[in-house]
Amino acid sequence: MAKIITAKRKEGEADRAQNYIRTRILFPSGLLGLLAMVIGIFALIYQLIIGTYDTFTFAQSTGLLVAGIILGWGQTSYHKFILRKHPGFFASRMKNAGQRSLQRMKKQAPEVELEHPGRGLVPLFYCAGIALLIGLSVWSISSESLDYMAAFFLPWAGFFWGKLFSWRKIIPPTGKLAKKLR
Q1: Is the distance from CB of 92 to CB of 114 less than 8 angstroms?
Q2: 102 has pLDDT over 60
Q3: pLDDT digits (tens, 9 = 90+) for 48-94
Q4: Residue ranges per domain, the chain?
Q5: What is the C-alpha separation between 182 and 170, in angstroms, rounded?
């Protein structure tokens, strides 16, 4: 009887990069965005119940959510640029994520380095974005029209959901959900 030999399908860099984005960016973004949105909405409902909800509260909460969405979209735009120009960067991260032992990681080749104009400014933009979200939250709390829970969690809900929905057309869903959407 002949042996059936199945060869493992080798994934390309783009497939590994998309898999990394699905598992390490999109899944946590969806989960954290949902958690932050639920906490923020419950804080707004609490404000409605105790009678401190007004039009300024609505405007501030909407502004915080939109600011988070814009920053999430901005970070995703940068990640899309990396995926388009350097797919090996995310592919090597996916390969490294699967390695569990330290000895395997030591034997492995180093991670792909990114080289593009403005690379040195990226950490500065990340810190500025975080400072902006925290600063807007503090300003909302100090104006005393928005509860501190809503002021902190709503911009992060917008950020994570902005990231999640920005990837939708680039990386389509897989599995049963993908069949339903087609």
Answers
A1: no
A2: no
A3: 999 999 999 999 999 999 999 999 999 999 999 998 888 888 888 77
A4: 13-112+121-170
A5: 15
Helix (H, G, I), strand (E, B) or coil at 23: helix
Alpha helices, DSSP H, located in the chain: 13-20, 27-50, 55-85, 87-98, 102-107, 122-142, 148-166, 176-181
Instruction: Give me 37's structure tokens.
Output: 């949105």
What does the chain come to in residues? Answer: 182
Helix (H), strand (E), coil (C) string for 96-123: HHHCCCHHHHHHCCCCCCCCCCCHHHHH
pLDDT tens digits along 2-55: 444 333 333 578 888 888 898 899 999 999 999 999 999 999 999 999 999 999
| Residue 19: partners with Cβ closer than 8 Å, 6 or more residues away | 11, 94
Residue 48, both tokens: 């409605």
Both structure tokens of 114: 């990114």
- Rounded CA separation 156/147 (Å): 15
DSSP three-state, residue 72: helix
CA atoms within 13 A on the CB side of 101: 4
pLDDT tens-digit map of 149-160 = 999 999 999 999
